[in-house]
Amino acid sequence: MTNLNTATNYTVPSHVPAELVKCVDYNNDPALKLDPYLALAPLHDGPPVFWNPLNTRHDGRGTWDVARASYMREILADQETFSSKNCAGFSALIGESWLMTPLEIDPPDHGFYRSFLNPLFSPVAVKKMDERIQARAQELIDGFKDRGHCEFISEFARPFPIAIIMQLLGLPIDELDMFIDWGQRLLHGDTIEIQAQAASEIHLYLKDRIAEKRRAPQDDFISYICKTEVDGRRLDDGECMGICYLMFVGGLDTVASSLGFQFHHLATHSDHRQFLLDHPKKIPAAVEEYLRRFSSVTTARQVTKDIEFHGVTMHKGDWLTLCQPSTSVDPLEYENPMEVNFDRRHRHLAFSFGPHFCLGSHIGRRELNVALEKILSQLPNLRVAPDSQVISHGGAVFGIAHLELQWDT
After folding, report:
1. For the whole model, what pTM was predicted?
2. Residue 240 and residue 212 in contact, taking contact as beta carbons nearer than 8 Å
3. Which of 54-68, 172-186, 220-234, 362-376 tops mean pLDDT?
4. Do 139 and 112 contact (CB within 8 A), yes or no?
5. What's the DSSP call for residue 339?
6. What's the chain's average pLDDT?
7. What span, in angstroms and rounded, lies between the C-alpha atoms of 357 and 269?
8. Chain-centre distance of CA 303, in angstroms?
9. What is the pLDDT of residue 6?
């Protein structure tokens, strides 16, 4: 990763010791394009908590970064000390103040929204969506299986989960390409200006959809949150926006990222591929291990009071960066962490931890399982196309940008 001696254009707060300063560029380091997890592995040889002056998005100063999985669990479980308010910061990008709900809401208010939303994403609710999930996966596979090759990210990994979330929200599927473009610019735009423009376009789009559903509610998610009364009142426009924005962003890239890494691994490890073909009941265990090995999301928390955290002095207002791709290969948490082991006990942070455990985890797991079941059974000898370039990336969600696969027809 970035060498401290070559990154000198930064300032460090007075309470940060020089020996805890380490420059890590999670967005643009060239090593991320080859293997982001291998690039991050050396972080575990240094201090488990360090100050990274390159992470300037939240307040321009930098952040405390956490390289140890057990420390990350402590932080995610302690909302009183480590607040999630404005942790995503999409509203601030466009000069708004609504919060992505319930992601950016701290307890006790967080519990109010979770109790309202949890039933919509329960295993029972996801089971009702299963036919839709399976049909969408098959539709995409049918588009390329007889061809013998595909660019997997653009032809399956991105359109599959985004289409599911669009159907859930009650949005027209013919706008899929626009949603994919928004997701790429919002989460992977090269500049803050590009990201802010995408954030603004998404906001205006959802604002119009919320207004439409208020006027003429239908049988979909947006209509439900617009018309349902909770504790004797309806949610206001800001609350509806926060919930819809989270659902929209949550479906844009995380499952696509997991699919990219999952199928790149299967295409380059014929032994694991054959094992799952011979033992299809192990597919759920494989999905969990892939979620662990290729955790992809980076989030943030803000310190609410002056504290000592494992010997590190943190001041009220300091931000922390929680990079799951780093902690997913923590050698103190997992034996041989870089190895994919389908028999591993599953204790990962891919869906976060504590009060903010991912609301959509059941949908995400089902999408990953369906994709693995269907693609393996229909394209059993899939492999990376020779002479093609596999391109990975860092950012808010680590992923694979380009993956050419082929198989015998």
Report:
1. 0.93
2. no
3. 362-376
4. no
5. S
6. 92
7. 31
8. 22
9. 45
CA distance 176 to 248: 12
Tens of pLDDT, residues 256-304: 999 999 999 999 999 999 999 999 999 999 999 999 999 999 999 999 9
Domains and CATH numbers, the chain: 4-406 (1.10.630.10)
Enter the tokens of residue 4: 């401290």
Which pLDDT score is estimated for 146? 97
Paired strand residues for 230: 233
Instruction: Summarize the confidence of residues 153-173 as an average pLDDT.
Output: 93
How far is Cα 84 from Cα 395, in angstroms, rounded to an integer? 19
Residue (of 216, 283, 263, 296) closest to 385 by Cα position: 263
**In the numeric block, which tokens belong to residue 43?**
């972080």
17 half-sphere exposure, CB direction, 13 A CA radius: 8
Distance from the Cα of residue 369 to its chain's centroid: 17
Q: DSSP assignment of 245-282, as one string? A: HHHHHHTTSHHHHHHHHHHHHHHH-HHHHHHHHH-GGG
Q: Which two tokens stand for residue 155?
A: 């032809």
Other C-beta atoms lying within 10 Å of the C-beta of residue 33: 17
Contacts 24+ apart (CB under 8 A), 119-127: 120/221, 120/224, 121/359, 121/360, 121/361, 121/362, 121/363, 122/362, 123/362, 125/362, 126/362, 126/363, 126/366
Please check the confidence at residue 253 and state whether its pLDDT lies above 90.
no
Integer Cα distance of 149 and 186 in angstroms: 29
Query: Encoding tokens for residue 374?
Result: 């269907």
Cα distance between residue 176 and residue 27, in whole Å: 26
Which band of pLDDT confidence, cut at 50, 70 and 90, is reported for residue 181?
A: very high
